[in-house]
Design brief:
Layout (H helix, E strand, L loop, with lengths): L1 H13 L16 E2 L15 H15 E14 L2 E12 L4 E13 L2 E9 L1 H7 L4
Parallel strand pairs: 1-5
Antiparallel strand pairs: 2-3, 3-4, 4-5
Length: 130
């Protein structure tokens, strides 16, 4: 069930529906952005409002186009690993093509933890922070 839901979630993400991640996300689940990525507050985010504002609203503000291109989804029982590339164009015209890995931990049908890994140097360079 966990892998099937993650596959469904990324299909919806590809359509621009970022709200899908909240459908099964526990309100107490830590959402951990990669260290030094511009959207990381330096500690895990918790709750829909914090994640929406810090991550998804920032993407909309910074990017004219943004895609999550998945290359692999691996099922490890209660953990699902997703690999791929973030591809986008910022509102200033800079291009992003950064590798990522996402680790989704489940307890039954509920997402209890999210961890992102990505090329943080590229993110910072593309967003003009380096």
């Amino acid at each position: 069930m966990s892998k099937a839901y993650v596959e469904y979630m990324y299909e919806r993400l590809a359509e621009g529906d970022f709200g899908v991640v909240f459908e099964k996300l526990s309100p107490d689940a830590p959402w951990i952005e990669a260290e030094n990525v511009p959207y990381s507050p330096g500690a895990p985010l918790k709750g829909r409002e914090a994640i929406q504002k810090t991550v998804f609203d920032s993407h909309e503000k910074d990017f004219a186009e943004f895609q999550i291109n998945v290359s692999r989804i691996a099922d490890a029982g209660d953990t699902v690993l997703v690999q791929g590339r973030y591809v986008g164009t910022t509102r200033t015209g800079a291009k992003l093509d950064a590798i990522f890995s996402h680790v989704w931990d489940f307890d039954g049908d509920t997402i209890v933890r999210f961890q992102q890994y990505t090329d943080t140097w590229q993110w910072r360079r593309v967003l003009g922070l380096e």
